[in-house]
Write a structure and sequence with these properties.
heterodimer; A: 496 residues; mainly alpha; two-stranded antiparallel sheet; 2 strands; 73% helix; 1% strand; B: 150 residues; 2 domains; 5 helices; 0% strand
Chain lengths: 496, 150
């Protein structure tokens, strides 16, 4: 049997199906509850996948990623509070629709748009990832160093208002990745005598600390600054059967907008640093420009909801394209998947199709399956999921704090991981308070080993002669692009 | 605690980061990395290059922070000392770590969840009891072989 057939059969195995369903349910839950973001959920879920097979683990995590985007629309539409930052654009027309008694209609359109965006980008991923990987195999370490520098710079520049702080964060992440045994000499480096650090800082503890635990500390503080009001799903006042149903005419009207949003989301997902939030707002703006009903936007236009949600969900599979093809994460979710791959001894990148083709095709098949499960479970559970928005913070925050502790403990089976987790949670809290990007730090940390290895290989290949760069035009172009990007973005920020 | 209005946060942050980078370059890296070998890249090269780059950017941040808004009225930069909730949170975390270190993860987990719920203002005893037992219990069921509680 070919690898494609084997991969598909792995995707339809019972364990993978259960992982997909569990991931979708958990993703919807995460998306609905404001305060738990997608990266937080992924960070906390990674330890759970230790004991799953690689295909089940990746399918589970990808399902969480995809479904949380769709789930975030529910609270955005019903109570004007986006469950995920990327659902903020959905509030603009979703909440007005609820106030008109058309909340259920808006929820259905959001679901269909999410699934369509997801399927569109997944198909693009399946079609272009392997050809890209074949091209990428021709790329050597020197080109890889240049590409990573460009990717890290783009992410740093787009991660926040300050390019300088973004670059500092990314560089500190690269520094954190140097802790452990030096790969050439096998001597301890920055381990301070701790044997536990010989394999480097525990990945799960760092990720959980910086994303999950720090977010809970922020939520904890926020709880005392604002009145603790239980978020209650808005009554869908004035709802009639016509207002709850999506007609064929409405579907025909919104489908072109969904396709436009899917395309925008896919492109935004591929480019490192842009992310789902930018994609959803870009799509919203584009839809408003092309729509015949542009005066309705902001006052309850179904097209507005469709545009935002299709782009939001398209970014998730699209961000996996550079991950599978080049080993470069285009988003923090994709970066966290590197951690999951690493746990199972797999290196994402162009060699994935050569060394683990069966897994790659299995993941593709499970992603298509996830889209179908999202549609079915989302349609069935629409009303029930909406009630989850009312879970109070006094339950969510302590529960997630314990989940973070348990997750950090699992990795090292000792309290050392917990200490590291709390340490990085504190660092992330300080980062957030002073405008440094946690995402850029984490991406720098997760790609650091790959970057250093490629740099070492580059130095060996070129024998330290920088003139050898002239033999690598792709690397020169990427380095020039990095310099231009820093220059242009620096100018923009200075002019502000 | 508030700093004088003329002090800008980015300047302070830049100087703090720069100072930390200097300490790392001057003491930490030399002490915690082995000497260069006859082949390959020296172990200290990557840490040194990254921290040097961070140092340069931190100095840039400090200078830009000082020069920025020089013709505008300075904004009031505040650095709040830990307030009551912050101190409560820090205290809870320390208590959790101590309890887990000596009494195990399950006991620590129950007390962690219950303690944070109480600190956050939850006063319904049944709810506290149910959640404090359910969450660690569910994790125990899910990952029992992975987590050696106690």
């Amino acid at each position: 049997m070919s690898e494609i057939q084997l991969g598909f059969s792995d995707a339809f195995a019972l364990s993978t199906l259960v992982a997909v369903v569990a991931g979708v349910l958990l993703g919807y839950l995460i998306g609905v509850i404001p305060g738990i973001s997608r990266p937080t959920a992924l960070a906390v879920a990674i330890p759970v996948t230790f004991y799953l097979s690689p295909i089940s683990a990746i399918a589970f995590l990808v399902a969480i990623s995809k479904a949380s985007g769709a789930g975030g629309a529910i609270t955005a539409i019903l109570i004007n509070t986006p469950g995920e930052p990327s659902s903020a654009a959905t509030c603009l027309d979703g909440y007005p629709l609820t106030r008109q008694g058309k909340g259920e209609k808006a929820l259905k359109i959001a679901l269909y748009a999410s699934v369509l965006g997801d399927v569109f980008a997944t198909i693009v991923l399946i079609v272009i990832a392997e050809p890209m990987a074949r091209i990428a195999l021709k790329i050597g370490p020197i080109e890889l160093v240049a590409v990573l520098m460009f990717a890290l710079t783009s992410i740093a520049a787009l991660s926040g208002p300050s390019l300088t702080k973004g670059l500092i964060s990314g560089i500190l992440g690269l520094f954190a990745a140097t802790v452990g045994l030096d790969i050439e000499t096998a001597t301890p480096r920055l381990t301070f005598g701790f044997i536990e650090l010989y394999d480097g800082l525990p990945v799960i503890a760092v990720v959980i600390g910086m994303l999950g635990m720090s977010e809970m500390l922020v939520q904890f503080g926020r709880h005392f600054r604002s009145a603790d009001e239980d978020a209650a799903a808005a009554a869908d006042a004035g709802s009639t059967p016509e207002n709850r149903r999506v007609t064929w005419a409405e579907l025909r009207q919104t489908t072109p907008i969904m396709l436009l949003g899917s395309a925008i989301g896919t492109i935004a997902g591929i480019l490192p640093g842009l992310g789902a939030t930018v994609a959803s707002f870009l799509s919203y703006a584009a839809a408003r420009r092309v729509s015949a009903n542009r005066e309705q936007f902001g006052h309850g236009a179904l097209e507005g909801v469709a545009a935002a949600e299709s782009a939001d969900n398209a970014t998730v599979p699209a961000s996996l394209i550079p991950l599978f093809a080049l080993g470069i994460p285009a988003s923090v979710g994709a970066a966290l998947l590197i951690g999951a791959f690493t746990i199972h001894g797999i290196t994402p990148g162009p060699r994935l199709f050569v060394e683990n083709g069966r897994l790659a095709y299995g993941v593709f098949a499970s992603m298509m399956l996830t889209s179908a499960v999202m549609l079915v479970l989302g349609r069935i559970g629409l009303v029930g999921l909406a009630r989850l928005a009312a879970v109070p913070q006094t339950i969510i925050v302590p529960s997630v704090i314990f989940l973070c502790i348990a997750g950090a403990y699992i990795e090292s089976n000792s309290m050392f991981g917990v200490y590291v987790m709390f340490g990085f949670a504190l660092l992330a809290y300080v980062f957030r308070a002073y405008g440094f990007s946690v995402v850029t730090f984490l991406i720098g940390y997760l790609v650091g080993p790959m970057f250093e290895l490629a740099l070492r290989q580059s130095i060996i290949i070129s024998r330290g002669d920088i003139g050898r760069l002239l033999d690598h035009p792709v690397a020169l172009v990427m380095l020039a692009a990095t310099v231009v990007a820093v220059w242009q973005l620096g100018r923009i920020q200075l002019s502000r | 605690m508030k700093f004088a209005p003329a002090v800008r946060t980015d300047t302070i942050i830049g100087l703090v980061v720069a100072a930390a980078c200097v300490v790392i370059l001057a003491w930490v890296i030399p002490a915690e990395t082995s000497r260069a070998t006859a082949f390959g890249m020296p172990p200290a090269l990557m840490p040194t290059v990254t921290i040097s780059a961070a140092l340069g950017l931190a100095v840039l941040l400090a200078v830009a922070g000082t020069l920025r808004d020089s013709t505008e009225a300075p904004t009031e930069d505040t650095l709040e000392l830990p307030n009551a909730p912050g101190l409560a949170c820090a205290g809870m975390i320390l208590a959790c770590i101590l309890i887990m270190q000596f009494a195990g993860l399950l006991a620590g987990g129950i007390l962690t969840v219950a303690g944070f719920m109480l600190v956050m203002g939850e006063r319904r005893p049944v709810r506290i009891l149910v959640i404090a037992l359910a969450v660690p219990g569910a994790i125990q069921l899910l990952l029992g072989s992975a987590l050696r509680f106690g």
